[in-house]
Specification:
TIM Barrel; 2 domains; alpha/beta; globular
Amino acid sequence: MMILRSIIKNILLVITALGLNTSFVNGQIKAVAININLSKTYQTISNFGASDAWACQFVGNWPNDKRNKIADLFFSRDTYTDGSPKGIGLSLWRFNIGAGSAQQADQSGIKDEWRRAESFLNNDGSYNWQNQAGQVWFLKAAKKRGVNQFLGFNNSPPVQFTINGKAYASGGKVNISADKYDAFASYLARVVKGVEQVSKVKFDYISPVNEPQWDWSDGGQEGCPYNNAEVAGLVKSINKEFVNNKISSKILIGEAGSLNYLFTAGDKPGKGLQINDFFRDGSANYIGNLPGVTKTIAAHSYFTTSPMATAIKARKVLADSVAAVKGLDFWQSEYCILGDNAGEIDGNKRDLGIDAALYLASVIHTDLTAANASAWQWWTAISAYDYKDGLIYIDKNKTDGNFYTSKMLWAMGNYSRFIGPGAIRVDAEVTSAVTVKPLLVSAFKNGKNFTAVIINPNADDVAANLNISNANIKFSSAYTTSQADELKANKATGVRNVVPARSIITLTGIIK
């Protein structure tokens, strides 16, 4: 008996030294039941993506080895010998179609040159397709690694068409007059064709308006405000130009600065209620019937993510509002961690660790499960700032420098790497509340492939017991992101899997 006790004691010491949870060995780990119903389905996933603004204009010209390593982290679907992914496998890439503030340099009024952007349009009306070369490099790198959805977006019309000749507004008023809408539309048609010519990448979507509710008057970056009538007028011009020139790129609208502007009037007269204004037949600003407009409304999750109960309530109202319009989808098309988030996390200061990653994962989860988002897109893929706005961080160096991965990158990869376009969200419900903080669970099927993402924000390991209705699933792998791991591959242990403390895991399997 003494020998047996000694052996057990030594085993526990080894387990503790390895950082494993001894309560599991003693049979004391808390177990949570999760019911998965494959027959109860929700939205179909379109993509997971991120934006090239602003740093890719420089990083795309960095030494070849470094920029390729960064591209692998964003786009690669390859794995290491142990099965762990080399990258997060984004399925959409957002390309910032610049307004020309970079060519204006200091005369642009935008002090930070990292927030200026080049334009393909010259002052004499000609086009230079060698501009935005760093960003075009990333387009090619994404396509080479298997990305097949691309979106071009404008923060501002080209400075040649703006009222004040700048890429930001004056006095919070729209910075393009109606008589320039057609010129802007013609420019976008030329950009679609020109970019395809130099990169072999064709934009599936063009998003001509970004966060129209904000004033964009401080010169902090390119930006342009619009009210809904102005958005509709511009979109009608773009639609006409695209149809006449057989441009197949679809126009994505909304890009509201906050989710609430989609379904409430908000605090910006004429800039809210965008679902009804743009997609309700009979509205003065109805554009949902235009052949060039995708049946999708897009908005950004800023300022709506905390506290969780409030976030869920708003997203359920949004989901109901979208569902009331036949055939309409919702995309969460831009997010990073801003503000103080009801004291839960502050957007200031970089956080390469698991705290920011867990918060980000909870936002993705809530947008997918409460708002029924069919796409989820991050703001700036690469950041040079001391802020929680990047998946990868770099030294603020235009020609070379170091880069640093964040746990936010890998947390997003728990979704983007495994939930591909065409995946259908299925019902997943946690039925027992034995943890201090609830587990967050979402599940998806794509043909015979099954994926579940489980977030454990607790300080202890939790055993997740999956009860599968209407099918059998042969589980294959579990991929863990934690303070220690970055999509680390392990073998799934069937319907019972330990979710490590403060981690996100993705379970994959085949539906039998």
